[in-house]
Amino acid sequence: MNLKFIFGTDFELSRIKNTINKLDWYNSQGYKPRFPKGITNKSSEEEIKNQIKKEFKEDDYKVVANEISSNFSKISELLFNKLKEIFNKEIPKEFIVYLTNYGVGGSYKLPNMIILNINSKNSSNTIIHEIIHLIIMDKITEYKIQHWEKERIVDLILNSEEFSFLNYNSWQKDYSNVERYIDNLFNNSFFKNPEKFFSKIETTRIVNN
Fold it and tell me: If you average pLDDT over every residue of the chain, what do you get?
C-alpha cells in the first residue's frame, strides 16, 4: 500500500467549513476540533481565509508527510496482506491523505480518502486507525453500528495479537461504556468469523442496555 499526501490553503478552508457544519455533533461526542486563532462558527469565509494564510507553514506539513511515509513503508506490505487475509476482500493499494492543521485528529471518506490533523500525537497510528475504518465501513453501515462501537472495534483490531507487528498500543480515553458488551463478542468471534461478529452487535447491545 502507498500513501499520497495532499495539502494546501484551499483544503484548509474546506476543512474548517466542514468542521463548523458538524460542530454540534462533535460537541455532543466530546470532541474539541481545532480552529485557526480567533475563528469561530460565526466567522465569515473571508475572515477564515485570511487567518489560514497567516498560519499556513508548508514545511510543517512536509515534515509530517515524510515522517509518516518513512514509518508506513516498514509495515505497508505486511498490513496489506493481513487485511486481505482477515477480511477476504479487495484492499485499496493507495490511500489519499489530506493533511490539515485543523478539525479533529483524523477522519475518512470512502473509498480511500483519509484526513489527518498534523497536530495528532501519533500520526502514523492515526493513519492506520483510519485505514481500518475504511476497510470495515461496509459492515458498519450494513449493521448500523454506532459511533463508539466502531471506534472500540477499530482499536480492538489494532491492539490484537494478529496486528502486533504494528506496535499500535493506543486506546481512546472513553468509549461510552460500549466495551461492556463489544469486547467479549469481539474476543469470541471476530477473527473466527468477522461477518458473524458484526451481525450480532445489535442484539448484544439490546441485551446489555
Answer: 95
The model carries a pTM of 0.91
- Asked if residues 143 and 202 have their Cβ atoms less than 8 Å apart, the reply is yes
CA neighbor of 177 nearest in space, from 201, 145, 152: 152
Yes or no: say if 7 and 99 are a contact pair by the CB < 8 Å rule.
Answer: yes
| b/e code 148-178 from CB counts within 10 Å (16+ = b) | bbbbbbbbbbbebeebeebebeeeeeebeeb
The backbone torsions φ and ψ at residue 138, rounded to the nearest 5 degrees and listed phi first, read: -60, -40
Torsion (CA) 24, 30, 36, 37 in degrees, nearest 10 = 110
**pLDDT(192) > 90:** yes
In b/e form, how buried is each residue of 89-117, taking b as 16+ CB within 10 angstroms? Answer: eebbeebbbbbbbbbbbbbbeeebbbbbb
Q: Are 127 and 71 within 8 A, CB to CB?
A: no
Residue type, 53: K
- SS percent in the chain: helix, strand, coil, step 5: 60, 10, 30
d(CA 195, CA 89): 12
- Cβ neighbors of 29 (< 8 A, separation 6 or more) are 147
